[in-house]
Amino acid sequence: MQASDRFNINSQLEHLQAKYVGTGHADLNRFEWAVNIQRDSYASYIGHYPMLAFFAVSENESIGRERYNFMQKMLLPCGMPPEREDD
Amino acid sequence: MYLYNLTLQQATGIVAAINGNFSGSKVQEIVVARGKILSLLRPDDLGKLQTLHSVEIFGAIRSLAQFRLTGAQKDYIVVGSDSGRIVILEYNKEKNVFDKVHQETFGKSGCRRIVPGQYLAIDPKGRAVMIGACEKQKLVYVLNRDTAARLTISSPLEAHKSHTIVYSICGVDCGFDNPIFAAIELDYSEADQDSSGQAANEAQKHLTFYELDLGLNHVSRKWSEQVDNGANMLVTVPGGGDGPSGVLVCAENFVIYKNQGHPDIRAVIPRRADLPAERGVLIVSAATHKQKSMFFFLLQTEYGDIFKVTLVHGDEGVTELKIKYFDTIPVTASMCVLKTGFLFAASEFGNHGLYQFQAIGDEPDVESSSSTLMETEEGFQPVFFQPRGLKNLVRIDQAESLMPIMDMKIANLFEEETPQIFSLCGRGPRSSLRILRPGLAISEMAVSQLPGVPSAVWTVKKNVNDAFDAYIVVSFANATLVLSIGETVEEVSDSGFLDTTPSLAVSLIGDDSLMQVHPNGIRHIREDGRINEWRTPGKRTIVKVGSNGLQVVIALSGGELIYFEVDMTGQLMEVEKHEMSGDVACLDIAPVPEGRQRSRFLAVGSYDNTIRILSLDPDDCMQVLSVQSVSSPPESLLFLEVKASVGGEDGADHPASLFLNAGLQNGVLFRTVVDMVTGQLSDSRSRFLGLRAPKLFSVKVRGRPAMLCLSSRPWLGYIHQGHFLLTPLSYETLEFAASFSSDQCAEGVVAVAGDALRVFTIERLGETFNETAIPLRYTPRKFVLQPKRKLLVIIESDQGSYTAEEREAARKECFEAAGMGENGNGNVDQMENGDDEDKDDPRSDEQYGYPKVESDKWVSCIRVLDPRTATTTCLLELQDNEAAFSVCTVNFHDKEYGTLLAVGTAKGLKFWPKRSLAAGFIHIYRFLEDGKSLELLHKTQVEGVPLALCQFQGRLLAGIGPVLRLYDLGKKRLLRKCENKLFPNTIVTIHTYRDRIYVGDIQESFHFCKYRRDENQLYIFADDVVPRWLTASYHIDFDTMAGADKFGNVYFVRLPQDVSDEIEEDPTGGKIKWEQGRLNGAPNKVEEIVQFHVGDVVTSLQKASLIPGGGECLLYGTVMGSLGALLPFTSRDDVDFFSHLEMHMRQEHPPLCGRDHMAYRSAYFPVKDVIDGDLCEQFPTLPLDLQRKIADELDRTPGEILKKLEEARNKII
């Protein structure tokens, strides 16, 4: 890699995308975007204990179960990915 | 509008708890995180939990861990929070604070997916800590000691793995080999790419060991193996010399022992017999008990059952894993096994418990073992058990928790001086209505009737060095009664006191003699029984007395003061006389400073509205040192000395200081600082206490001098964690009081009221509220007050439970089965069982929880409750799977039935996989028997869940999904009159005022509507631009609404004045404009005028004034069980002062766990016009020089700042 490449906008973006999960890019499709939002939301619910408790009350489950359910949902938060058109 | 935020009751729920020796002594202590609060608890000798220290950290604590360096005696605390920093704290015993030892930044702040803080794991030997995020990132910090034995922390080592979800991490005990951390990981990268779903089905959780190579300073993935896909938690198994090492993997229905190079040992978790087959059993909390010779684990399931897990191990590793039923207690967030034989159970909802171990589950019970694990075609063979009463644990104390507050209303139903806060708390069988009253709880020890109506009471010791009081002396209008304190309290006549006269004062004087002052003289009773009597000159009588053990001043009628001192031989000698200008209203002598002969100050209150400080020094005896004029004649005076202290119990340094308190006849308590040298008075504060002139008495609280003020209700003034607090006691009006100390009761108070003598102690110091709890049946949802009838109507509903009859039938069946199985020897036992069962009945559900059924089954009831007697006058269980969600009282305009009750219900409501319901209903009930019972008039089917109901112009407004509809009362059903279907999602709140309707949407904040009677039209004329997930709302004024959202923000929106005027003046009511919306909504937009991040989901808002005659503030209750207030500022000066103080506090005193204060309060939206009183109130805990520095910047003295803070608090409570 040439020295100038390090500063070009694309490589900076790539660096960001590698470092921060969920950083978008120009070719991001609707599904990928939604998946990121959902995972971020679940992580936020898990991190904010009062919110977890709020959900636990409304679903009448224990907080531990509620946390586990949210973790499990992080695997496929938006269902199956769409079929890819290329390759 | 500017608001001052103050937390009145700190959060009572617990997020995480750890135990260890944090103060460095052998005492077992517990550190708990309550959301944004970190506190240190200690069970005392009596097994009562005491809070030693509590600090708000202005951030969300997500995880806690403790570690100890090898050979050290003291545990450190590691905090994982939302600050993007790892913080290591040490408890400083001397100053009673948490000291920040290290704070290392590793990422962005906030609870983010890939920023560590969610999980913490400790190397059992205290050499390293791992901090992890939900996804990808894990960092390892090496902990060590430098040459001065201080803790050092390395730079972070990465153990990241991208596209990986982390379920749990823990340290692996491998003795002094390289530290290893274990993690449950799930890789989602393939599932995200594969559209056939095959990869997602095959996605497999892995248990991965990360090894920290201390030599290379590098973390590597050492070992990774597939693990059960239901795995959710890891527990460290002791290793090194103590055990086999490795980890317990808790998975849904299983516990699996795993270690590198070791076969899996798996056992099933026993299931409750009544659990539906499709429900799993998940472990939610774990505790380890480790002794030299053995160890075991206590694992609690999501239903509350605790299992004892033991491992059989030898040279060849673990051969068997046994899971034995231990006991059932309410579901916990964390459990701590203390070395002293206690179990601290931090309940996830409701009160926390401290249990004592009676046994460690050695007796036979239902057990599942890895060696008897049976695999069949349908999977592993389950093991069943039936929960039973506590066998191994016994509860010895509980800590109250309001978590979660579901609804709250403030009203003065009991016609007391201050209103009561009615809050619905808890969940399922542990729910309750709690009535909170501002004030300290007291516990009454004895009440005894006296022969007459006493006027005063004192207690005396026989000797200065005695620990306990010897006599209680009660004065009547013409006699004095002496009671001696021993095993019992009985009347004596050999005490030497004159019993034929009333007394004015009784006290210990000198080292060992007693003094009785009566209207005609002073009686001095020496230790050997000799009696010296001093008589008043002429016909004059003594009216007032002040004394302090070595000095006595009496005031004669007419205004003459006579001053006595105890000389070297113990004689009481007259020293000086002084003529005052008029009658003396009250007097008091300051306590003798340590190491001195006498005190220098005498305070004299006169009827000319002045208080004078006189000198008692021999060289300027009876000289007036200073004069203070007050608003009303003083009735009672008391000097309160605060000894110099460095740190100590309350956490801050204090120079010695002397306060003069005066109770004035207009009911005001006046408090001022006395200069210890010159006697000058400064820094005066006053506070209205009640309708009667406060009488002041000196008492002891935790061994320190405190003040009891008796006005129309009693108050206690004492120092708690660096603050001087003046708090009302929840007790009746008292006439006279004295401190009381005996064998049974070390720090009590004896008081007279009416013709009774009362002995009581003051409990739970430092708390703002005391509570009365009334148990409820299901999770309470909402309630309405009926102020006239003084009744409450509460709706309760629970998802996934059996109805009351089904539960009763199931229980009978089960007890019969158990009775036959266990003791088939006849009816006698069964009868006894039956009796026991009846007694245990209400308790048992509280302990075990309701049995679970399918999630689309609901139980619900409507209850009419008389809070005064705590009796339920009517309880209607809803039938057919209906659940109540909203309630309101409504007066229809035809007035045929008077006030009616409307209840909104849903039948067969399901949230999953899609929100659906069989039907919604609005029930209309009429009140019978003066409101004590209900009768159904009719019910009307509607198409959705009526989540909001409200009376409006003699009709009923209902929010049913996105529809706002106006109903009128018909004979057989409600009649639709008008509706508006244009709301975005679901209506959750409705408030009305005149012809305006304020509608709250679940996701889209407020909509302001108007009803036009002529055209019979409902239309939205204004809405909010910010999507807010409303959880609570309150109507503030015509144009203003207060709301709270799911993310923990409180905000106010206001319709701009010109828009409001325009709408009111427009003959069409803005209707023409309404037809042309703006930004996909209403034509007008409200403005956000206040915004504040509370950091906790606010579930209820209410405007109220908690002090008589005080201004109103907005009170909020939260899910974590805290109560707070937002007080509007009335002057611009105060706003300036507090915003500058807040700014300096932010700079000089950043929050403990590394979150930036401003960023925290602006977590979702920038904070607007709210000053954080919780931060300002940390000012007294700062070091003195820092206090002075901030005060200088503000052009004030630290005293003035404290006064301001106190004033602000006193305006609220």
Automatic annotation (TrEMBL), chain A:
One of its GO terms (cellular component) is U2 snRNP. Pfam families: SF3b10. GO terms for biological process: mRNA splicing, via spliceosome. It comes from the Eukaryota. Belongs to the SF3B5 family. This is Splicing factor subunit. It comes from Corchorus olitorius.
From TrEMBL, chain B:
Residues 442-762 form the RSE1/DDB1/CPSF1 second beta-propeller domain. GO terms for cellular component: nucleus. Coiled coil: none annotated. It comes from the Eukaryota. Residues 14-367 form the RSE1/DDB1/CPSF1 first beta-propeller domain. It is found in: Nucleus. GO terms for molecular function: nucleic acid binding. Keywords: Nucleus. Gene3D superfamilies: YVTN repeat-like/Quinoprotein amine dehydrogenase (2.130.10.10). Residues 819-849 are annotated as: Disordered. Residues 860-1179 form the RSE1/DDB1/CPSF1 C-terminal domain. PANTHER family: DNA REPAIR/RNA PROCESSING CPSF FAMILY. This is Uncharacterized protein. It comes from Corchorus olitorius. The lineage of its organism: Eukaryota, Viridiplantae, Streptophyta, Embryophyta, Tracheophyta.
